[in-house]
Design brief:
Elements: H1 8-20, H2 25-35, H3 47-50, H4 53-57, E1 62-71, E2 77-88, E3 94-100, H5 106-122, E4 128-134, H6 143-157, E5 166-169, H7 176-190, H8 210-230, E6 238-242, H9 246-257, E7 261-267, E8 270-273, H10 280-289, H11 295-300, E9 305-308, E10 323-326, H12 335-343, E11 348-350, H13 359-367, E12 371-373, H14 375-378, H15 381-395, H16 401-425, H17 432-450
Parallel strand pairs: 3-4, 3-5, 6-7, 6-10, 10-11, 11-12
Antiparallel strand pairs: 1-2, 2-4, 7-8, 8-9
Helix pairs in contact: 1-2, 2-5, 5-17, 6-7, 8-9, 8-15, 8-16, 12-13, 15-16, 16-17
The structure holds glutamic acid (GLU).
């Protein structure tokens, strides 16, 4: 892709990033989205150029790649590739999830690690940006195989992380089961019980509300927007949510609690449409208990229809809705889908996944008066609650569900107001891509400058 930025300085940097990181399309996309939005900050913050903050921030502090060999149930040795991208530690220890999915490569983890810097900054908590993972596919593997993989992964990763250095967590393919196996292995090797991972089970230092946090946080963020900008709420709205993993499930739960009707969910094979409203207890049984596919929902619920959609579940965006919450994966919502959503009257698009909307689709929403909220702002509730888990671990305490949930809600409303006010300040009212990138950047930039040439 040929990325051009109007501002010459930013354009030169963009071209350098592309040349230096060839064959990394997702990383280029994330850097372009960022650099292309921050020009309004340059005249007000000359230090960004004078101190070469941007040249520094696009370069990861450290990138780790390693072999992960493990033995499958047939006694055969399998080999995967493990990664940890420690992108920026200016404002706190590296923090970010571990993605386990066959698509994982350096480009995807660099885009995720880069976005994590600004997301974590927006939470207001002291967390740097990182991401890790592997091309291991937990789907279809036995518990024993998942454990063998996680233990081998941690046998290398342990030397690079620590509760005050780098604190990984879940992401696609990494849930409480995987975090448990990784935590056990870390503890055994280091001989230390610490808060080195978040997303742990409650019995060994996990936080209440961490499971729900990303989805709940997304709805708290969108609800603040609905209230402030449209004087309305989720009450009575029709909502389409893509995905059916942790983020989608708890976004559905909170949207329903707030009075919305969620009519669709998806996975990588297709989507279900239930005009009577998704029955979440059935989805939870299929996904969380049985680790099954979303097609099973239509087998169990007569009002639902399943459509196989080999094209990465694009079909879900043809369902008319007031609010669309893409909660599956990167680039799942393209320009064609954006046009269909707008034609069908969508008012708000809130990203629950990381970078689920393509750049041209984002622009189309913004040009057509749709409120668009980028994932680095609207899905920050997950990592924010990870930050709260770190607090509880350090204090050796555990807070009630109500306490964590109230803090999460406060953090998400605060992010909305920060992003909204920042966009307004630089003359780009309602452009939350600009607001999120500039607000996230300024805190990190301040810390980087104060710490000298790092
Ligand atoms: N993977 C999540 C994210 O994209 C959570 C990261 C964390 O809790 O550290 O923000």
């Amino acid at each position: 892709m040929d990325y051009k930025i109007e501002n010459e300085y930013l354009n030169d940097l963009m071209q350098k990033v592309m040349a230096r990181n060839a064959n990394e399309p997702e990383f280029h996309q994330a850097v372009y989205e960022f650099l292309n939005s921050i020009a309004p900050a340059l005249p007000v913050h000359p230090e960004l150029i004078e101190k070469q903050v941007l040249e520094r921030i696009v370069e990861p502090e450290r990138q780790i790649m390693f072999r992960v060999a493990w033995i499958d149930d047939n006694g055969r040795i399998q080999v995967n590739r493990g990664y940890r991208i420690q992108f920026n530690s200016a404002i706190g220890p590296y923090k970010g999830g571990i993605r386990l999915h066959p698509s994982v490569n350096l480009s995807i983890l660099k885009f995720l690690g880069f976005e994590q810097i600004f997301k974590n900054s927006l939470t207001g908590l002291p967390m740097g940006g990182a991401k890790g993972g592997s091309d291991f596919d937990p789907k279809g593997k036995s518990d024993n195989e998942v454990m063998a993989f996680c233990q081998s992964f941690m046998r290398e990763l342990y030397r690079h992380i620590g509760p005050d250095c780098d604190v990984p967590a879940g992401d696609i393919g990494t849930g409480a089961r995987e975090i448990g196996f990784m935590f056990g292995q870390y503890k055994k090797i280091v001989n230390e019980f610490s808060g080195v991972l978040t997303g742990k089970k409650l019995s060994f230092g996990g936080s209440l509300a961490r499971t729900e946090a990303t989805g709940y946080g997304l709805c708290y963020f969108v609800n603040a927007l609905l209230r402030e900008k449209m004087d309305t709420s989720f009450e009575g709205k029709t909502v389409v949510i893509s995905g059916s993993g942790n983020v989608a499930i708890y976004a559905t739960e909170k949207a329903q609690q707030l009075g919305a009707k969620v009519v669709a969910l998806s996975d990588s094979n297709g989507y279900v449409y239930d005009p009577e409203g998704i029955k979440l207890d059935i989805v939870k049984d299929i996904k969380e208990v049985k680790r099954g596919r979303i097609s099973e929902y239509a087998d169990r619920v007569p009002s639902a229809k399943y459509t196989a959609d080999a094209n990465g579940s694009k079909g879900i965006w043809t369902i008319p809705c007031d609010i669309a919450l893409p909660c599956a994966t990167q680039n799942e919502l393209n320009l064609d889908s954006a046009k269909t959503l707008v034609a069908n009257g969508v008012k708000v698009v809130g990203e629950g996944a990381n970078m689920p909307t393509t750049l041209d689709a984002t622009k189309f929403f913004q040009d057509n008066g749709v409120f668009f909220t980028p994932g680095k702002a609207s899905n920050a509730g997950g990592v924010a609650t990870s930050g709260l888990e770190m607090c509880q671990n350090s204090a050796r305490l555990s807070w009630t569900f109500e306490e964590v949930d109230a803090r999460l809600k406060g953090i998400m409303e605060n992010i909305f107001h920060t992003v909204d006010a920042t966009a307004k300040e630089v003359g780009c009212e309602n452009n939350y891509v600009v607001g999120a990138n500039i607000a996230g950047l300024l805190k990190v930039s301040d810390a980087m400058i104060a710490q000298g040439c790092i």
